[in-house]
Write a structure and sequence with these properties.
The structure is a single chain. The chain is of the alpha/beta class. The protein contains 14 helices and six strands. The protein folds into two domains: about 300 residues, Thiamin diphosphate (ThDP)-binding fold, Pyr/PP domains (Rossmann fold, 3-Layer(aba) Sandwich); about 40 residues, no CATH class. It has a six-stranded parallel sheet, sandwiched between helices. Belongs to the BCKDHA family.
Length: about 425
């Protein structure tokens, strides 16, 4: 037979690769790619973003403060529930006074926590006192729950000589080493990868400590959030990502912020255990945070908590929220579904609180805040020399020249500056 003649089909040799394919077992038919776990399909079908119904919202209390499922009742003592309530209401009182202080030109800036008090207190109560906190800038209630005094809140906002930051941070950028609360920085989401690094350090030291990192749903759009999620999952870090989804970020409604199912839906994509909770239910926040913390330490893995809440106040004193939402919408959340009123209903129902106690506490808490406010306003500002301190162990020559130049300038033109308001 010549080279060009073809063999009949029944005499053609079967290629070895075909024989090998025919010998595959059902187990070997599964994909062996290292990048994902899945099955083969033979039908072209794109995954729709809305195939799966929305992640449910875990709650313990209804809007009237009634426990829905007794098995989910955290069984907290009356003393602890009262601490929840008093912290939330004291924070609310401080907010009102400092907000008005800014409007009167007494401080430069302020951010209220109206409507989000339940996320602060519920999560803070579930942590160990030595757990490290990375806040964004609306977590004053976490620090307050840990016992940070009113006079230091005021000192920071006024930038006076008692401010532990020596007046070098804008208002509401709190920090406290003793209470394991990392100083807040203004840029969005910078704290997320930093928090993951701290959690990784805890893991390496077998410290039995967790890190909690707070951020808003707007900050979750920053690149740092995605990097932080991925590092935490792959390095198996004991961290709680706590997202306060308050609906509007700075001024962007969630409908324009993202197209997916909120922030909790992103967790599984990174391999992170996730839950969505009712952020206006302080007990739900407490339960979710407590269990997430326990498992984060025991299993060395990250958890993502998305607390659904509502920002009742403006984003800050630089914002006018009436430009992007209605007054009726704000009034609904303020009057019908507020975390403070929900907890008050619960306490009233259990006989742990009454109207007389409410009036007495409101009067007492306002007096405490006003005393701290008046004291902060009377104090001198930090010395201008603090412009040059706490950066280097030994001051470099260029900074020393700047310090000397400032001293010469003040000697020549000091009468033009209100130096009497500053410490010497």
């Amino acid at each position: 037979m010549s080279e060009g003649d073809a063999l009949p089909p029944h005499l053609c040799p079967v290629p070895q690769r075909v024989l090998r394919q025919q010998q595959f077992t059902s187990l070997e038919e599964k994909p062996q790619f290292p990048g994902a776990s899945a099955d083969f399909v033979d039908k072209l079908d794109f995954i729709q973003p809305n195939v799966i119904s929305g992640i449910p919202i875990y709650r313990v209390m209804d809007r009237q403060g009634q426990i829905i499922n007794p098995d989910e009742d955290p069984q907290l003592s009356q003393e602890q529930v009262l601490k929840f309530y008093k912290t939330m209401t004291l924070l609310n009182t401080m907010d009102r006074i400092l907000y008005e202080s800014q409007r009167q030109g007494r401080i430069s800036f302020y951010m209220t926590n109206y409507g989000e008090e339940g996320t602060h207190v519920g999560s803070a109560a579930a942590l160990d006192d030595t757990d490290l906190v990375f806040g964004q800038y609306r977590e004053a209630g976490v620090l307050m729950y840990r016992g940070y005094p009113l006079d230091l809140f005021m000192a920071q906002c006024y930038g006076n000589a008692s401010d532990t930051g020596k007046g070098r941070q804008m208002p509401v950028h709190y920090g406290c080493r003793d209470r394991h609360f990392v100083t807040i920085s203004s840029p969005l989401a910078t704290q997320i990868p930093q928090a993951v690094g701290a959690a990784y350090a805890f893991k390496r030291d077998n410290a039995s400590r967790a890190v909690i990192c707070y951020f808003g749903e707007g900050a979750a759009s920053e690149g740092d959030a995605h990097a932080g999620f991925n590092f935490a999952a792959t390095l198996e870090c004991p961290i709680l990502f706590f997202c306060r989804n308050n609906g509007y970020a700075i001024s962007t409604p969630t409908s324009e912020q993202y197209r997916g199912d909120g922030i909790a839906a992103r967790g599984p994509g990174y391999g992170i255990m996730s839950i969505r909770v009712d952020g206006n239910d302080v007990f739900a926040v407490y339960n979710a945070t407590r269990e997430a913390r326990r498992r984060a330490i025991a299993e060395n893995q990250p958890f993502l908590i998305e607390a659904m809440t509502y920002r009742i106040g403006h984003h800050s004193t630089s914002d006018d929220s009436s430009a992007y939402r209605s007054v009726d919408e704000v009034n609904y959340w303020d009057k019908q579904d507020h975390p403070i009123s929900r907890l008050r209903h619960h306490m009233l129902g259990r006989g742990w609180w009454d109207e007389e106690q409410e009036k007495s506490w409101r009067k007492k808490s306002r007096k405490r805040v006003m005393e701290a406010f008046e004291q902060a306003e009377r104090k001198l500002k930090p010395s201008p020399q603090h412009l040059f301190s706490d950066v280097y162990c030994e001051m470099p020559p260029q900074l020393q020249k700047q310090q000397e130049a400032l001293a010469r300038h003040l000697r020549l033109y000091g009468e033009h500056y209100p130096l009497e308001h500053f410490e010497k």
